[in-house]
Amino acid sequence: MGQLKYAVSITDETVGVNTPIMISGTFRECFRKAADCGYDGVELQIKDPTTRDVTELKDLMQTYRLEVPAITTGMEYFGNGLSLISDDADVQRRAVDRLIEHVDLAAELNSMVLFGSMRGVIEDFSRYQELETRLIENLHKVLEVAERRGVDIVFEPINLYVINYINSLDEGARLVRKVASDYFWLMIDTHHMRIHDGNMYEAILRNKDLIRYVHYSDGNRLYPGGGNVDFLQCTKALLESGYHGWITMECLALDDGERCAEKALQYSRSLESACQAILA
Questions:
Q1: Per-residue DSSP letters for 207-251?
Q2: Torsions phi, psi for 123 (to 5 deg)
Q3: Given CA atoms 117, 252, 104, 209 in this order, what sign does their dihedral have?
Q4: pLDDT reported for residue 41
Q5: Are 154 and 164 in contact (CB under 8 A)?
Q6: Residues in contact with 73: Cβ distance below 8 Å, sequence separation at least 6, in sequence order
Q7: Quick one: pLDDT band at residue 40, thresholds 50, 70, 90?
Q8: Angle, to 10 degrees, between the axis of helix 89-109 and the axis of helix 54-64?
């Protein structure tokens, strides 16, 4: 039995061809495809969580024997324009309220909530301290509910071509320590790490005590093994650090998303086996 569990990101939203999601459609279709590929779970990429049928999701989890390790919130920024650092107080309020709605859904599904893009972008870096303070204050409002409901919120450093601050794993770790909540953690995404973190093996080990969740995606956003990321070293670092959590595939579908999802899982499991043999 492996040390790691594997999930694939899914959505029932309408997304473009450049969205890193290999399996989309109705949730029933997505759960079935993920199970057929051999995954242990599915990550939900959604917006407007109050519109979701919790009973249906739990039924799908039971039917296909899949967990939902995490719910992502990026569509709330890119699709709904919600940011915790907006200068519009109403947008801030709605962003906080929406994150709490994601927390409520996550509590029902025994999931984490991934937080990354909803921190928004900074237009004027002379205001950095002011906006970081605003970010942390609004995160604390969400964490009051998350702590009460037992839901972890996991912060994702994102590359500067998408979000222009807190891009590296070390920078993300500094934010996590500033927020200082037992329910606020760090995640890694290998696609973003390739741009900002230099030696990814060392970056993972350096921040091992804060890492709660992992996205695997190659440097070109294809499935692991489809680009230039050294996943052997990433997997080795995770195992050496004692990580026992989820690795979720967040990759482009190309012409056949299900085939890509199968390749991602096969390659990642083979790396885990190889690393286990090396470390034995």
A1: TTTTEEEEEE--TTSSSTTSSS--HHHHHHHHHHTT--SEEEE--
A2: -85, -30
A3: negative
A4: 98
A5: no
A6: 47, 98, 99, 102, 113, 114, 115, 116, 117, 118
A7: very high
A8: 40
pTM above 0.85, yes or no: yes
Q: How confident is the model over 205-229, as pLDDT tens digits?
A: 999 999 999 999 998 999 999 889 9
The DSSP output letter for 84 is T
SS3 letters for 103-154? HHHHHHHCCEEEECHHHCCCCCHHHHHHHHHHHHHHHHHHHHHHHHHCCCEE
| pLDDT given at position 76 | 95
Cα distance between residue 81 and residue 93, in whole Å: 12
Q: Which residue has the tokens 């799908």?
A: 60
For residue 10, the one-letter residue type is I
Task: Enter the tokens of residue 225.
Answer: 């093994």
Q: Which of 188, 106, 93, 89 is nearest to 147 (CA)?
A: 106
Residue with tokens 């919130």: 73
